[in-house]
Amino acid sequence: MLAPYDLHIHSCLSPCGEEEMTPNNIVGMAQILELSVIAVADHNTARNLPAVQKLAQEAGLLLIPAIEITTAEEAHILSLFPSVDAALAMGEELYAALPPIRNKPDVFGRQIILDENDEPAGELEKLLINAVSFPIGTVFEKVRGYGGVPIPAHIDKSAYSVLSSLGVIPPELEAKAVEVSPRGADRGFVPPDGEAYFVITDSDAHDLETLSGHEARTLELRELTAEEILRVLREGNL
């Protein structure tokens, strides 16, 4: 089966995410776009995933719990997990590993935790877009320890990607999948040793306009489950 997906969406908990990116708006837009699978991946936290999960289940939409992790090298890693609990546990480790720098909402935006009614349930104090203290190898190890799949994010971009930060995708990471931005995909960007990687393309949406305008790609799956999607991304093949 072919499943339309968007595995990299930010909620309003990311300081760079617009306040319109609420759990209800994200799930509602995914329904309008007729997506089968979404992943909400806020910077270094998973605290909005419980609300999104509840709404996605009610809408008959598959949510893959996710976090966009900023490694010590300032490379972004899209990390997908088998359950919300696993993502929350990883998120707690990441929050503890962030530097003790408070967010400045007037500069970076608020970091709002919402419930399933889009009502505020709290805010996070540490600035989430900073790099955690874990180097990239440790991030890969920890994500996999929670049953997750770490994916080098938007590797074609000139900042905050594995290639821009390190120059290469370290072979010792044994990454099987990589993410290429829509713009990179449109201009024909090919990863180093391109055929060795399973390539996904997501909106990386921080606002509803970007989310609604993204042309979703599809995944070929044996069944529409989180386990199957993680298997494809983990193995890099069908």
Q: Tell me how many strands there are.
A: 11
CATH superfamily: Metal-dependent hydrolases
Which overall shape is indicated by the principal axes computed on the Cα atoms? globular
Q: How large is the radius of gyration?
A: 16 Å
CATH class, anyone?
Alpha Beta
Mean pLDDT: 96
- Fraction of helical residues: 25-40%
Figure out the total of helices: 9
Main sheet characteristics? 7 strands, mixed
Poorly predicted runs of 5 or more residues:
none
Strand residues, percent: 15-25%
Q: What is the fold-level CATH name, i.e. the topology?
A: TIM Barrel
Quickly give the structural class. Answer: alpha/beta
Order of helices and strands: EHEHEEEHHEEHEHEHEHEH
Measure the end-to-end span: 12 Å
How many independent structural domains?
A: 1
CATH architecture: Alpha-Beta Barrel
Structure explained in plain terms:
With 238 residues, the chain is α/β, with parallel strands linked by helices. It has helices at residues 23-32, 49-59, 84-97, 105-108, 136-145, 162-166, 182-186, 208-213, 226-235; strands at 2-9, 37-43, 62-63, 66-70, 76-80, 112-114, 120-123, 149-152, 177-179, 198-200, 217-220. The protein has a single domain (2-235), classed as Alpha-Beta Barrel (TIM Barrel), CATH 3.20.20. The strands form three sheets. Strands 1, 2, 3, 4, 5, 8 and 11 form a seven-stranded mixed β-sheet that branches. A two-stranded antiparallel sheet has the order 6-7. The chain has a two-stranded parallel sheet with strand order 9-10. A hairpin with a 5-residue loop joins strand 4 (66-70) and strand 5. Helix 1 (23-32) runs parallel beside helix 2 (49-59). The longest helix has 14 residues, at 84-97. The relative contact order is 0.20.
